[in-house]
Amino acid sequence: MTLPILFTLFTFVILSACSKQQEYLQPPKVDEFYTPPDDFRDYKVGDILKLRKTLAGLRSMYLPINIKNSWQLMVRSENTFGEASYMITTVMEPFNADPAKILSYQTFQDSADLDCSPSFSVQQGASRLDIGAQFDMTFILMALQNGYYVVSPDYEGPQSAFLAGRQAGKAILDSIRAVLRSGEITGISQDAEVAMWGYSGGAMATGFAAVLQPSYAPEIKERFIGVALGGFATNITEIIHAIDGGFYAGLIPAALHGLANEYTFLKPLMLEYVDPAQVERMEKAADQCLINVWVRYVGSNIFNGKGAMFKNGAEFLKLPQVVDVLKDNSIIYLNASYVPQIPIFIYHSSFDPIVPIKDVYTVYDNWCEWGADSLEFSEGWLGNHITDIALGAFAGWSWLEKRFEGVEPVVKGCHHHVMYSNIQYPGAIWKVLDYFKGYYNTLWYKPLGRGTKSTTTTNITSIAVEYISEIKKSMIAYYKQRSQTRKGFNLGSYILFELMAIDSIGTPLSQKKLETLEDTL
């Protein structure tokens, strides 16, 4: 029986189980656990206000994961304006966990709806529409498999302030503060090493945590060993212009609602500028998870073009109070007092259609000029925002794991390098094995953690090789098609596409094979 058939059968069983679990798993808006105690303002940031074990087991996409424990902590925090707030964070303990290693992973929630919070979405029985947190769990498996604790914060806070960077950064840091104090509950050492990781919206939140840490949480600086930022969103305004009218246009109304949840004056101002005939359509983005937002608004003109949602085009974005909000939540506009003091690894695709790389260049140049101690920027020439979720993740994980192993960053100061693909980054291809090992063990509900009985490296290698081979075939067909539809398109420049021309795991294609491939294309 082939792997796809097994996966289909297994998925059917899981979905059946999930439908029963929804009877007791309540979404955050109606779950009393998400309501803080009356005296929460009296606590210090990072204090644990409430705790419980997750009501259901956790999952990676449709598959349940087998770990030792998982908890939800309500933590005292602050909002953008320094006012008392709170947030929920999920703590995952694998089997034989190392109490001295913590990965704080920020998923790309990308929603203004509280019911799309990661703490709810990663549980079995939750809605399957919040694919961001569920898909990110496939990468979290790599850390769990190695015995690292993983923390997944609801960094948007109780107002679901999507893209409110300062709110997110504070929430992440307070989550880490709380986890370092949770030893009696979780077994985590107060002196544990901490790494942060995020992609896209998760990278923006993680980036704000990194730049706010020196001023907001200086006492935990020594705990941090590194930060990985992929598909690094640094300029909200430019992202809006890049995706308006395209496949990802739905992120715009979701982002505006998320910011309005934090900056309440934006909501009436926004509706004043929306075409009256489209107000109801605009409002629906306020309570949709990522998949629904994508589907509902695909190809929509929000500010520009025929039938645009905003009646005066992009004039709304030029209002002084709107400009201030967008700049205050875009890392690109921060000054020299906001330079990270933690080793940073950025990975990004050159032709990312969602998050323009030119703004990442600017942030990189700024941080270097302002004295960043260790800043490495890996740019993948091929691929895009979606493909680098996976291909770039292996580079990010390779870099992070070196930090967990006690290896100092190779880069002192700054270094920017360009590759055909980020999966060419040293050690990245071998992390494909970690990914498939975690996936395979989850497929069969094997325990995740150090020293657990799991599939052999040989079996995982064969699965990974088959997977990479299929990707190579698909990309050859893709580029061949492009050569037939684009006049003068030079396929020779794309020979080392995406999977950086690997014949098998870690084995580069010979020059002869490259020439044969180029002739074929």
Automatic annotation (TrEMBL):
Q: Among the record's GO biological process terms, what is one?
A: lipid catabolic process
* Gene3D superfamilies xrefs: 1.10.260.130, alpha/beta hydrolase
Q: Which residues form the signal peptide?
A: 1-18
Sorted keywords for this record are: Glycoprotein, Signal
Species source reads Lodderomyces elongisporus (strain ATCC 11503 / CBS 2605 / JCM 1781 / NBRC 1676 / NRRL YB-4239) (Yeast)
Q: Does the keyword Nuclease apply?
A: no
Q: Cross-referenced PANTHER family, in alphabetical order?
A: LIPASE 5, PTHR34853
Any one GO MF term held by the record is:
triacylglycerol lipase activity
Can you name this protein? Answer: Uncharacterized protein
A Pfam family it matches? LIP
